[in-house]
Fold:
Amino acid sequence: MKFDFYLPVEVLFGSGRLDTLGEVAKRYGYRAIIITGKNSTKENGALERAIHSLKKWGAEEVILYDRVEPNPTDQMVNEASAIVVENKIDYIVGLGGGSALDTAKAVSIVSSNEGYAWDYVNYPEGPRLIPYLNRPVICIPTTAGTGSEVNRYSVISNPKRKEKLVISHSLNYPKVAIIDPTLTLSMSPRLTAITGVDAFVHALESLTNKVENTFADDLAIRALRIIKEWLPVAVNEPENLTAREWMSYASMLAGIAIDKKRVALIHGMEHPVSAHYPNVAHAEGLAALAPAITAFNYKGNPQKYALFAEIMGYEPKPEKAVDAVVELLEEVGLRVSLKELGVEREKLERLTEDTYMLSRGLFPINPVEPTVEDIYELYVKAYEGF
Ligand code: NAP
Ligand code: FE
Structure:
């Protein structure tokens, strides 16, 4: 048995906790920026409540950066970082889905060190620059999927290079995560399914990859049990707060699990997809790839895949893991192929090359170490519909 555990994030979990933002934030200074998306936090009132809470507890200046889009770009991070520097901002509030949170965390690094966002992303040979400073970040998720509020990752896209890479550094942890499940009530059934499948794949990949971390395995196991029980409920009854609470909790657990164990080939092959097709949501790509990759992987870690199958209500046999993945996706309406997502057949070679060039750092921890030919075949299967 072996594990490392370090999590420098204060977690405040519970319905209604958004309103404690101001009280928590005041210890970090007086000048705040809120980094959020274009619409949802305005429509569901979360943004107004956040601003109100900050002002009530003495914030002198609350600046808004509300131009984060799904699959956020390096340009958005650079733009918001310039605003932070120009306005001498003390601390950053990320409010929204994983895209807003990832942006907020990356802005903390880029606004506090030299260079630009792309200097800090992790190519297989490492990032161009290492950060040494950051600013406090408070993350408030409004989706239940990425776990970004509790981990060290920011996933950033570079539209010019058509690359999607991760900033992964201990300075990229938020200081505080305020997880208020009521903020997820406004998600549509489809967005609930998409984000929930992200948490599901985080738990699946962290549990089954080759990194040894008993503690993180337990988090992933618990997350899977909760997702199996509550994700279909949240999708079918978007206003069911109990289901929302469990999904926010499961997403957090899975977010910590990937912080400790990383992900594996499903994420490694998805990032090139949403890099080339930014309109594909991260977890739609995961959903298209997960069945074929699970069928490829299970022999590499039979014990863990048997456990996964058992958690999902199947016989404890590794090969049953594939059925378990497919059933979960079918249950939440996300059984899709890459073709149905708009990926072009002639792009599969380029996606294969990009997986090798950009995600090969994950290959040694994947249950079965893939060759380039394996990756191409997996893309073909996911394209045709496994
Ligand atoms: P997202 O990209 O943040 O948001 C997707 C859409 O959902 C946006 O249009 C957003 O609208 C809307 N939305 C957010 N919260 C809502 C709510 N409560 N009600 C209604 N609509 C809402 O989605 P996400 O799945 O949370 O994040 C995906 C991103 O996170 C990807 O870039 C992915 O690569 C990354 N990711 C990061 C990690 C990590 O560990 N850090 C892990 C997995 C994935 P607005 O834009 O108007 O707000
Ligand atoms: Fe993910």
